[in-house]
Amino acid sequence: MIELQGIKKSFGEVEVIKGISTVFEKGKVNQIIGKSGSGKSVLTKCVIGLYAPTEGQVIFDGKDFSEMSPAERTDLRKNIGMLFQASALFDSMTVLENVMFPLEMFTDMAKSEMEDRANDCLRKVNIIDKGDLFPAETSGGMQKRIAIARAIAMEPEYLFADEPNSGLDPQTAIVIDNLIKDITYEYNTTTVVITHDMNSVIESADRIMFIHDGHKWWEGGRDALIATDNQELQDFVYASKFMKELRTQLVNRHG
Questions:
Q1: How large is the average pLDDT for residues 130-153?
Q2: Mean per-residue pLDDT for 72-98?
Q3: Rounded Cα–Cα distance for residues 58 and 75 (Å)
Q4: How many Cα neighbours within 13 Å face the side chain of 237?
Q5: Which CATH number applies to 1-77+207-255: 3.30.565.10, 3.40.50.300, 3.20.20.150, 3.30.300.20?
Q6: For range 160-179, the mean pLDDT
Q7: H or E element: which one contains 162?
Q8: How confident is the model over 226-254, as pLDDT tens digits?
């Protein structure tokens, strides 16, 4: 579990995050949504320690990040898996070597152990037969799977994903959503996903936080999202004709 208490972040005189408090629950897919520039990425960087909040506390399972020693922060970061928007794989490494990379950096495992762990992770994302390829020899969707395998190699307690479906076709996006959801439940991770993909929100989010102009504007589950009368949230989620039609169908389905 990650708890945010009154997080604010300013750059000079510009306040980007304006007093956000929330809880990202363990064993659930916690999604952050909002317009571009609303503060989603800045908030996430405050959570993982890339930015120091101007005010407020970030608490990982009862431990305040600001009060941790350098050694404690290092240990915490070993327990954070990151899935970047562009996958961020190393072109000069094979698929297997990419997945092994965090194990080489942060553990004293023997090479055979690292290979076994990496292959287990590739098996979980259904690409066990691609270990000898280089990233450029794989598709965009496959690269996302490789990135997920690398993110879970350390069996992290916390998993962060930044626009995991960016650039993917709808069918592949569903595969990635399901993988993230399955891994969250299997490992009981605290998973935080930044997304603009409303299909992903409707189908896979357990908890949703909507950020508007740096504020936590709305928070709740999928059913509450479907029924919301929050005007700014409605304008964001149901901006397209397709999503308006989907909302009508979902409301009818849920009575």
A1: 92
A2: 90
A3: 16
A4: 28
A5: 3.40.50.300
A6: 89
A7: strand 158-162
A8: 778 888 888 888 765 555 666 666 666 65
* pTM for this entry: 0.88
Contact yes or no for 138/171 (Cβ under 8 A): no
Distances (CA, A) of 190 to 45, 156, 206: 16, 9, 11
> Structural domain boundaries of the chain?
1-77+207-255
Total count of residues recorded for the chain: 255
Rounded to whole angstroms, the Cα distance separating 212 from 18 reads: 10
DSSP secondary structure of 59-126: EETTEEGGG--HHHHHHHHHTEEEE-TT----TTS-HHHHHHHHHHHH----HHHHHHHHHHHHHHTT
